[in-house]
Amino acid sequence: MLSPIAFAIAFGAYAQESHMGHSMAEAQATAEAAPSTTAFINANAKMHEAMAVPYTGDADVDFVRAMIPHHEGAIEMAKVVRDYGDDPEVRKLADEIIAAQQEEIDWMVDWLEKHGQP
Is the same domain home to 61 and 74? Predict the structure, then answer.
């Protein structure tokens, strides 16, 4: 019999694998039907890859380094809405996100430079 902890770990891994596989299959089917889905998938993958920053042990630096690509991903997703979206309210939100996220990216890049971080 599995201990509760071993069960939770085993079930969590199974559930995550099952969920991920299911989501990917659905995403692929939808991607074939909608160019915007392909664009979202690409932006998401690029963002997650870029967020894999080398950690320094400094929570502030690590946070800022990882948040830059996170914000860049938000901008890319907002651009997908501008390219493919129809709802004027959503497109307005996308424009606001682009402006706000870019302002924060600029602040974070400046902060890293001020703190001697690449």
Answer: yes
Domain count, the chain: 2
Are 27 and 46 found together in one domain?
Answer: no
List the pLDDT tens digit at each of the 118 positions of the chain: 545 555 455 555 544 444 455 566 666 665 567 899 999 999 999 999 999 999 999 999 999 999 999 999 999 999 999 999 999 999 999 999 999 999 999 999 999 999 999 7
Query: Are 96 and 78 contacting, i.e. CB atoms less than 8 angstroms apart?
Result: no
Please tell me the total number of residues recorded for the chain in this structure. 118
49: enclosing H helix or E strand: helix 35-50
Residue 1 domain boundaries: 1-33
Q: Considering the entire predicted model, what is its pTM?
A: 0.71
